[in-house]
Design goal:
7% strand, alpha/beta, 837 residues, six-stranded parallel sheet
Length: 837
């Protein structure tokens, strides 16, 4: 065994270097960091970035450095393993010491990658996934060599909560370098037993500790989690807080960790989030908090794994399958009194105790009451008298005295005050209360002041002297009723109930609802379902449309406004179909139809049914066919055969025939719709081109490829003229042409077409969109047909991974991709792709 070495004692060659650092340009930062640390420890190092003169012969300099240095450190990454120059460098070092006794070659990985062949036979080490101090210590231990017994006793391997295990305790109160959490609540009171329970639960978790705090809204789950994070911050190297109430946005919030972790921050949020979760599996000492998560199933795929800890707050108690649940109840009486005495010092203990009892020891109610008393200048006894008087009325409506009654009473009193002092704020709150407890864009109000009533209209008008929208929001923030992030505001779920109730009692509650419908519909009308840039706005508006449909006030408005709401729902459902978010679109359509079926006009309801059918067809084409046939019959009765809406239904019935592989029938119906649209709308109309394109699709599926290809070239030329090269429908036509090229054995043409299409769809739709994945899978088939089985298998496996993440394990597309991989692994080429949609 080679003995341990100190800096400068190794038998350096003529260059005088102890180490030559071999790396690729991709890992230049790692190489320079390694060289710096070694030289700081007294070693002599040769590294290209510092030691090769400009103009010198690169290959000769590399050869000289590798031959004359005592040892070579290979900075191993995927890029390094693919570099011919790097391979020559490390193989030269290996050839000089094939047995490894002289430690001539030391592989050090800087990312998670395999060490193939000869490299795998050498004992190396890893520097990725460590904090800088630990990485320096490991690097210098590698340089010294010798026996690697640690200075401290290793941690028991059955205990996977990686906190508090460093030889030296962390500095108390010091926040970790990677820190994102709410500020500490200076009035936090009590909860010692719960804090101890959380600590015990997290320290005993295996292999990753997950603990869920659950309880009704207002019991202080968030404050409890924040206090835990601050109290034990010195035991972690990373603490990261994620607002988890919107599952579609969690990926973006996890992706925000990429830069602090030293990962690339370029690329789609979904890819960055995946990289972050993978990085956490290789780290220790981290705590991730998911705040206000409501759906265990939806959150499951976002939970990080590895030697760290996860803390969840939720109203939902059903976390037992994923986490160690801890119930969070109301305060103990001593805690309630302590909080009130801290917030309202100097008052009689008996009055404080009575007030705590009356408020049900609910932390949110206690804090809200203390805020009201401090703001209005009343005293606890006066507040108590008002509370008792108003609680009876609320209890008569069925409110829970320990929850809705208490909190609603505190807020209704303040609402009366706001009505007198800031009526524009009350107007804003009453509109927001009809929407969902999700982020609301301020542009919903500021872009359409003409639709609002004064004084809110004045506040939303640019240049108004006495009032602006920021001040309106500020008045609500004084009572913590509104949260604001940039250009978004959000009402607390509890606040909405109180404000909505006040709106229902307002003299013109139906006018408030009409305004909310008009505002949302105006924003939807400014969007287009086929523009990917508009899809995030549709997703943002979806919960608000659903919430508005559920409002009782909708039943009091005229049918014209109900129809406008239904048309907005239909457009949003259409956008969900285009973006591939079928479940959300179907849910919105079903909710609106269930609630508004007897309130809306027949044509508006038919439009929602029409859009719903396309979503249903993704899994249940026979059910979708019946919906389309019913809609078609109704539209023929109401509008006649050649009305654009009727033609749209006829088009969908033809499409369903194709999906069910009834190709002659589909072709016949497509020809009829195409002829009618060409007569009514013109040949270059976008709807006419849809019929012409799908007619070619039906013809191609009957193996009449030349005829279909000629039509598609005509459609492509027209679509480029009408909607441009990069429109979704233009790309769809390019897809069909690449498909036909493949079916007719023109492999080079097909591959080139698919690669252009795949690049365009990735840019327009993203890597994980269903249409992107279809093109990707068909490219894999084209590669397989050319005998490039390895490349095809790589592409198929990438498609499978993307589909599993976005569609779930049991989706038919996922099952089909798995089947294709299995066939290819058996040496069999899968069947040609069938275009059924």
């Amino acid at each position: 065994m080679v003995g341990a070495e100190t800096p400068g004692t190794a038998g350096a060659g003529e260059s005088g270097a102890d180490f030559f650092v071999s790396y690729t340009r991709t890992d230049g930062k790692w190489a320079e960091w390694i060289a710096w640390q070694l030289e700081a420890a007294g070693y002599r190092v040769t590294i290209q970035a510092w030691d090769f003169d400009r103009g010198s012969h690169f290959v000769r300099e590399m050869h000289r450095a590798a031959a004359t240095a005592d040892r070579t450190i290979a900075v191993v990454s995927a890029a390094y393993l693919n570099s011919a120059y790097a391979e020559a460098e490390w193989q030269a070092a290996w050839a000089a010491d094939p047995s490894g006794t002289g430690r001539k070659l030391i592989p050090i990985r800087v990312e998670d990658c395999p060490r193939p062949g000869l490299l795998d036979q050498l004992v190396g080490d890893d520097l990725f996934g460590l904090d800088p101090e630990a990485a320096v210590e490991r690097l210098l231990a590698i340089a010294r060599g010798g026996r690697g017994k640690p200075a401290t006793e290793p941690r028991f391997p059955g205990h996977c909560a990686a906190v508090g295990t460093t030889p030296e305790p962390g500095f108390p109160g010091q926040l970790p370098h990677m820190w994102k959490a709410p500020g500490r609540n200076r009035n936090f009171t009590g909860r010692e037993r719960l804090l101890a329970a959380i600590r015990t639960s997290l320290r005993e978790g295996r292999p990753v500790a997950v603990t869920a705090l659950h309880g009704l809204a207002g019991v202080g789950k968030t404050q409890l989690a924040a206090e835990y994070a601050h109290r034990y911050a010195d035991e972690y190297s990373l603490v990261w807080w994620i607002d988890a109430d919107q599952i579609p946005l969690i990926g973006e919030k996890i992706a925000a960790l990429a830069d602090p972790l030293g990962l690339s921050s370029d690329g789609p949020a979904s890819d960055l989030a995946t990289a972050v979760l993978a990085a956490l599996t290789r780290r220790t000492g981290w705590l991730v908090v998911f705040d206000n998560a409501e759906d265990p199933v939806a959150l499951r795929n976002w939970l990080p794994d590895g030697p760290g800890q996860v803390l969840i707050t939720s109203r939902n108690p059903a976390w037992g399958a994923l986490a160690d649940p801890i119930a969070v109840g109301v305060f103990e009486r001593a805690e309630s009194s302590a909080l009130l005495n801290r917030r309202l010092p100097g008052h009689a203990p008996a009055v404080v105790d009575t007030l705590a009892a009356e408020l049900g020891d609910l932390p949110l109610a206690l804090a809200q009451a203390a805020g009201y008393i401090a703001t209005t200048g009343t005293d606890p006894a006066g507040y108590l008298a008002k509370f008792r008087a108003r609680r009876t009325a609320l209890l008569a409506k069925g409110d829970d005295p320990l929850y809705h009654g208490t909190v609603a009473t505190a807020w209704s009193m303040a609402l009366d005050r706001l009505q007198a002092e800031a009526p524009a704020t009350v107007q804003l709150l009453q509109l927001c209360a009809l929407l969902a407890p999700e982020p609301i864009p301020l542009t919903l109000f500021s872009d359409r002041p003409e639709l609002l009533e004064s004084p809110l209209a004045d506040a939303c008008t640019d240049g108004h002297v006495d009032l602006d929208l920021d001040e309106v929001i500020g008045a609500a923030r004084q009572y913590s009723w509104v949260g604001r992030t940039g250009n978004m505001i959000q009402l607390h779920r509890l606040v909405q109930g109180v404000i909505a109730d006040s709106g229902r009692r307002a003299p013109h509650s139906d006018a408030i609802c009409r305004t909310a419908i008009t505002l949302l519909s105006g924003m939807v009308d400014s969007l287009h379902p086929e523009l990917p840039a508009d899809w995030p706005q549709y997703w943002l508006l979806t919960p608000h449309l659903a919430a508005l449909c559920h409002q009782a006030a909708v039943r009091a408005v005229d049918s014209r406004h109900v129809d406008r709401l239904l048309h907005s729902v239909a457009a949003t459902v259409s956008a969900h179909g285009r973006s591939g978010t079928f479940a959300a679109g179907e849910a919105l359509a079903c909710a609106s139809l269930d609630i508004l079926a007897h309130l809306g006009g027949e044509q508006a309801l038919l439009r929602v049914h029409h859009e719903l059918a396309w979503h249903v067809a993704q899994r249940r084409p026979a059910r979708a066919e019946q919906i389309h046939l019913d809609v078609l019959a109704a539209r023929r009765r109401l509008l006649g055969d050649d009305h654009p809406d009727t033609l749209a239904s006829r088009q969908e019935v033809a499409w369903i025939a194709g999906v069910q592989r009834q190709w002659p029938d589909a072709e016949k119906q497509y020809r009829e719709v195409f002829d009618a649209r060409r007569r009514v709308l013109g040949l270059d109309d976008s709807e006419t081109l849809i019929s012409w394109h799908e007619l070619a699709w039906a013809i191609a599926n009957q193996s009449r490829y030349d005829e279909a290809e000629w039509i598609l070239h005509c459609v492509l030329k027209a679509r480029r003229k009408v909607v441009g090269d990069h429109h979704l429908r233009t790309l769809t036509t390019q897809h069909e042409l690449a498909w036909i090229a493949a079916l007719t054995g023109r492999w080079s043409q097909a591959e080139a077409g698919y690669r252009r299409l795949l690049g365009a769809r990735r840019r327009l739709l993203g890597h994980d969109h269903p249409e992107t994945l279809v093109a990707w899978q068909e490219l894999a088939w084209v590669l397989a047909k050319q005998g490039r089985h390895g490349a095809a298998l790589t592409e198929y496996q990438a498609v499978l991974e993307a589909r599993e993440q976005t569609q779930g394990d049991e989706h038919p597309d996922v099952v089909e991709t798995r089947r294709r991989i299995e066939l290819l692994q058996l040496g069999r080429i899968p069947q040609p792709p069938v275009h059924l949609a």
